[in-house]
Amino acid sequence: MQSASESALGKRTAAEALLSDLPENLTDQQVQQLLNDADQLPVESITASNIRRVVAQFDKKIKKNAEMRIKFDGDPEKFLKSEVDLDEEVKKLEQLSSMPELYPEFIQLGGAPMLVGLLSHANTDIAVEVMNVLNELTDPDTVLDASEPQAFIDALIACQLPELSVELLTRIKEDDSDEDFQAVSSTLSVIENLCDLQPETAISRYFNVPKFIPWLLKRIRSPDKADKIDYNRVYSAEILSIFLQQSRECREMVGRTEAHLDGVDKLLRCISAYRKTDPDSSEEEEYVSNLFSCLCSLMMVSEHQVRFGQIQGIDLAIRMMKERKFACRLALRLLNYALQGCAPNCQVFVEKAGLKTMFSMFMRKGVKGKRASTEEREDDEHCCACIHSLCRFCTGTETARVLNKFTENTFEKLERLLELHDTYKTRVEEAEERFKTRERDDEELKELEVDENEQRFLDRCENGLFTLQQIDLIILRLANMGNEAVRSRLLALLGVKGIATKEVVDVVTEYAQNLGQDAKAEKDELPGLFGALQDQPAQT
Predict the structure, then answer these.
(1) Domain positions in the chain
(2) Locate the Beta-catenin-like protein 1 N-terminal domain: which residues (predicted)?
(3) Quick one: residue 85, left, alpha or beta (phi over 0 = left, psi -120 to 50 = alpha)?
(4) For the CA atoms of 151, 152, 155, 161, what is the dihedral angle to 10 degrees?
(5) Which CATH class is domain 1-207?
(6) Are 294 and 241 a contacting pair, CB within 8 Å?
(7) What are the pLDDT digits (tens) for 61-81?
(8) Which of 419, 434, 513, 521 is nearest to 475 (CA)?
């Protein structure tokens, strides 16, 4: 793209990038003089007293440039000066980021459509400069200092910022220069800013731009391991993760094969590179974590769960757990999502010999006498959730294989299960006690509109309530799965360890009470299972 004259000029500015359009007979000295003249123009500071004039001047430069481009179409030398002038006016507006109090007036004066409209400028370098300015202006910390932050973001979105920014993404050729690479970074940053400030509106608008999700999926596709994972690849995976976490519509569409997206397959191919190999850097670790987060979100759609099982996703996750590399724990979490409520995947998991690997993680050394680390508690949660899914949904031979795991080595896994019950019951009770005894400022709670019961529930969840519920659901399921040896030993161990069946019933009852209408079948089923716990032997 660069001519010989450009190479002699060193680092490009946005204005210097215009040189690619110039005829060859313009000398280097003439070009440099034009740029020097532009750089030496005084940059007027924007203030409350002159912002009206600044916006009017900006409008004038836009119209002048458009007029010159039409008048001298095909003769870039004739409209170069107007393009340089416009570029300088765009740069000037970056000053607004340090004066968010002027945002409302900027919007009132019509500055938003002028600025955003330039994203479609024929000269990509002008559009890139606009995006850099928008990145500064939409920084959440800055916007929230404005008197009307939502009005500012609404105005930008109303000017088709989502649509025009995606169009710019498709125009930029990242490999051409560092400036182009940075332009993609700035565009992704603007998208993230809008999603932070107006998540529902921004995600809906971007998702409905046909080219956007395909662009993200293409950008995050995993290269050969020899290639470096660049910043924009990591950022693209993060943006996709945000969209999938917050939008059910996005989750449903991204995984569909008929939409020619097939995100489940594409993301599986990305993570497969890390089955036996660890990421090389913290940046690459973030990339891999975002890929797994994307897949976890897609597993919230039942048809995508089934697709995951059909294209060897379960098998890949099991293999990753066996390798015990960086992806091991991420694969465990993914399996939790893939098995949840999905009977076909539970069957596949057992058929693919996943039980040995899962129970190996389940039987890690206990944490008795010490507080479990955050990672260990997360592993406990995902292991127990997976095992509960297997106990609930497996049928036939697969059910027998699950039960058989609990009979191995004189029922050691039952003992481990009850050990975990004690550990997490204690943690939840301690959280409950702290909530009751801590000093609270009632006025502050009222001001923040904090519901005490909701806060109490959240405190208990943070300290392992969900894991305790999964443990006790496993206990209840095992007592009802038709293996009298397992049931008898389970009841005996409950008695020996001094765990009253009422403890288990109370925990499961609370769990059932908090289930939504979409889980009505499970909610109705659970009370009918309590009877199998009633003939508990006397405690010794």
Answers:
(1) 1-207, 210-338, 409-540
(2) 27-131
(3) alpha
(4) -140
(5) mainly alpha
(6) yes
(7) 999 999 988 888 878 788 888
(8) 419
